[in-house]
Write a structure and sequence with these properties.
single chain; alpha+beta; about 30% helix; five-stranded antiparallel β-sheet
Amino acid sequence: MHNFFVKIMFVIAILSTLNSCEDNTTLSCIDTKINEIKQTEVTNPPTEVWKWGVDRNTYYYFTSDCCDQFNFLYNEKCEIVCAPDGGITGNGDGSCPEFIGEIEKTLFWKDPRTS
């Protein structure tokens, strides 16, 4: 039950961050999301944030902590674009844009804490 409560609080924190992001605060918005993750219980596996560069756009991919959960992709405005993978099928939510170019993925941040 405690783990369920932590997950609910995490979702609430993410949603409140999305509502507070402004167009010109990309990195501070992503940093805010990361700081909120740091305030929650450590996930297993630890959360990672990957910076994706593709088709002249930048996205941020946040991993979830376990099974059957979506891994969300955010744009520079901290808006959820889609879930490229995860969920019950492991294939995401099916709403990602069709990227033309190759996706350049760079680890942006990994939670250094251990459980």
